[in-house]
Amino acid sequence: MSLTVIKLGGSLMRSDELSSWLSSIESLSTNSTVIIVPGGGEFADSVRNLQKIHGFNDHTAHRMSLLAMCQYGHLLAGMSPNLQIIEDIDVISPSFGKNRPLLWLPLSLCDDDSEISASWDFTSDSIALWLATKLLAKKLVLVKSIDLNAANLSIRNHIKMNHLDKGFQQLIEDYSGKILFLEKSQHGQLIDLS
Fold it and tell me: How would CATH label the architecture of 3-193?
């Protein structure tokens, strides 16, 4: 059974499509081990704004942003009770979570800067890529509110345009799986991934 990491963008937080994504992810989990990485969305945006106001360092902002991802994760779990929340990635294997999507909360990264640098260069996109690499996932799906495939740009250009964070470029060389970008209306395409 293959393993797929899906980063569900925080920009979908107020989207009508969010519940459809969760349903599609549940369907995909019948044939594949699926791990959701929640984005930070409005919660992370609040951290950015507070850092500008109060001037705390990037280490603090990074930890707060990881907690923002956890907040969105709990929102997703509240919408879809079938999600199995996990914090320890050491328990994950291709057979773990069979028929039930996993939702990873990155709390362990709050106290460990050795894995992901504590800066705005590494947001939920890079964290999802890091997790997919660490778990040898065959696929990484980044779900965003914009269509990254439409302009047919390179990863480097998407980074320059702030569609992806800068850390993505640093981590991508270590990932051997397939990366797919899906826009918020493309939830039906998940079934084709199994």
Answer: 3-Layer(aba) Sandwich (3.40)
